[in-house]
Fold this protein.
Amino acid sequence: MYSIKNAVMAKEHDPEVDVTVYYADIRAFGKGFEEFLEMAKTRFGVKFIRGRVAEVVETDDEKALVRVEDTEDLKFMQNKHDLIVLSGGIQPSQGMQILADDIAIELDSDGYVKVEHPLLYPVDADVDGIYTCGCSDGPKDIPDSVAAGSAAAMRATIVLARGGEVK
C-alpha cells in the first residue's frame, strides 16, 4: 500500500508524470484499500505490472532501464524510467525476539507480537498488562497505527484506574 500511496501522491503533484508499479504481491487488506488500488489505476492512471524485476541498468541517455518478467502475460519487457523508487517490505525489528524473550510474550509465525484475540482484544499481548501498537503486531498504515496506539493507551488507562488490577 505504501507504493500505491506514493504513486498517487506523485500523480497528484504532477498529473503528467508516468508512474509504473512493479510488484510481486499487492496486499490491500484494510478498509478501503482495494478501492484505493482501483482508484490509482482508473482515476490516476498508475500502471501496475505484476512481475519480477530482473535488472535495472543505466542507459546512455542516463535513464534507468528496467528489465522485468511480466508474470501475468508471461513475457519479458524492458521499460525506461527517469527515476526508480524501491519500496521495501516491512518486517519485525531484529530485536523483537530478544524483547519477547525478556518480557515472556509470544510472537506469531511472522515474528510479530501475537495478540490475544484480533477482534475482542486486538492490542492485548498474551501476557496481562502488555499492549501492542504501531507495527509491533504486524504491518499497518498510519491511521491503523494511530487507532492501535489509542486503543493500547486506553487499555493501560483502564488498568491504572483500577489501581493496577489487570482484567
Notes: The chain has two domains: 2-81, 96-161. The chain has four helices and six strands.
